[in-house]
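FIELD: query
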Amino acid sequence: MLTRHVAGGTALSVLLATASLLGVAAEPAAADSAATLPITSYSDMVVDGAHRRVFISTTDNKVVVADYNGKTVAQITSEPGAAGLVLSADSSTVYVALPKADAISAIDTATLRETARYPLGVAPRHLAMTRHTIWFGYAADGSADLGSLDLDPETDPTTPPTTPPPTTPPTTPPTDAPTPTPTDTTAPSPSPSDTPSDTPTDTPTDTPSDTPTDSPSDPPVTTSPTPDATTPAPPAPFAADTPTRTTNGAVVTLGQGGPHTWSTAPMLASSPGNPDVVAAGTPVQSPMELQVYNVSSGHAEPQAYRWNANNAGNMQDIALSADGKQVLVASGAPYFQQAYRTSDLADDGRYTTEAYPNAVAVAPDGTIAAGIDGAYEPDVYIFRPRSDHRVRTYDFGVVGNPGTASALVAGGLAWAPDSSRLFAVTADVYGQHPTLRVLTDPTKSVTAVTVSAPSTAKRATKITVSGKLTATTAFPAGAKVTVTRTDLTSPKGTSLGAKSVAANGTFSFTDTPTTGGGVTYTATYAGDATHTAGSGKRVVQVSRLATAASVKTNRATYAYGSTATVTGHLGKTGKSRVLSIWAQPAGGQKKLVKSAKVNAAGDLKVTYRLSRNTTFWASFAGDAVSAPKSVARSVGTQVSVSLAVSGNYGKGKVGSTSYYWFHKKKSALFTTHMTYANGRSQRLDLQVYYKGRWYSSGSEYFRLAITGTSRVGLAGPGESGIRARVRAVYVKGSSGDRLNTTTSTGWKYLYYTN
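FIELD: result
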């Protein structure tokens, strides 16, 4: 178990209201996942591997419990100002710092209920645990210091130690190291772009060279730094008058910070790899200051102190390496996670990320997760111990609608005890959409597989397929990829066996595809202890024989509502003899009419009722030998249209033609009924007979009502002996649409008398 402090609260928004207080078993996540959190602020996070649960504290006065998929399964309320968290070595208890109650509470990890509360008399904020002692950074009466809660005092030495550890030379800290002004210990830690309101804002004169000086988000500075000072701390024996008291069977000891004065409750870090050490640092303050304590006696003995290391400031998170030999720090500047020797706080390497580091967490196997508050760069970086080479990175992208960048919150990283998962808490740039992200296989470098082959090839001809594995770390000797070929003959795939991968990650093989069409070669790497699984593919279009096909109809133009007979024909093919007939009415969707084997003559016949112009297709999907083929034929369909004449006083013939007889001053009424379509109009044509010939007297369009009806009146000519004729017409395109072919009624003849 690794225990560490995390930075102060970051404002988030409430997106979830309630969850029942009960335990739910969770299945392992198969891939990275994310789930919304029911919190408005984030304080700290620990992971209980025994029960596969994640505990997240929030200044909303509660602790949220999630499963290994990130889903909230419980909310433990009445935890005033819940801040720092630590987990007992046996995973039976989570301890919570309660600054609003001046206490530490104990929560049973099985029942998810508070079982004890330890009054301290001061406000604890950050926790660390060594053996059976909880160390806490606290604030009280305008000052801050280090305290301890010994849960099993009977195992402690009977006499407090009076000498420092033998490895600590008795030297004096630098006299020019300033003591920062105390800060408001109740305020949450600001983001790297904020200037704390409770610290001085003088600009340091030795801004680090790798930090842009004109960035609006440079970390805040509280006092002008002195030169970097690195010294072991002086011997400061545990004082006999250090205040101690017993609470609920545990011993509380305050004022263990030694001669150093803390401006605010210090962040703390510990590691089971070195249970004799606790590291401490001042949050947010610029310049940064660090202190290491030897706690082997059960009391804090100053071991090393450093002021203004690497010109760092605005510290957001602190951790110890798995072996306890390094102190790791994330601060707004410099733009890397710093590493210092635990023994004397001398520089001991770095883990390079990007601007505004804000989180660092160490897995039990030593792997380091380093996070930043960045909108446009990867958010989390994974490193091997004592190596600045990145194993992999994570970029959380955007959240919400409209999307905004999702960023890691300060101190928002925690490892599962088996190192199989990394948990991260993120929010958008407005502090909204708080999300718990579950990152699987975080210790493994991501494997990318590329496959190369000709884009086209002749059937039954040998081709060469090659590829390459790439990752941020080297692949083990003897690595292999398995190759599968998928084609029309074997849609579920045919194994081509395992192919050896060369030292440079490349592989190559030959194959002779006997099936035409798209042939897909897929190469898969199964993964190993340090690499994720990965796969890549390449499609080769293998040639096929041309296919003959046709489609015909029994007519070219059809009356409205009549039935077309459609015949598709398929020529010689391979094994497949299936033909499909499709129909698409004008303005409508293409639909399958029938798909079946053709008869012995190669024909497939269907019937189809027509209401609009329609295109028919005969389509062959292709097979291993013959190429796909599709042919089309379009037919016209008339509208349904009729024209009625009224207002006449009789009917009679002129010659052999029937006429409607009208008085010369009587108006005629023409009623048209036509198949309706949105926006459709009918056209009326009028002609007059003169000296043995019909002459056009005009044409005009009239909009159809939704019923498909149009009524038009024609005034009488006022003289007798006039002969005229009229008809109704649908004109493709001119009548408002192109859904049908041009259709007209017969002529209606009119004769005017006295």
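FIELD: remark
Residues 12 and 40 are 4 Å apart (CA to CA).
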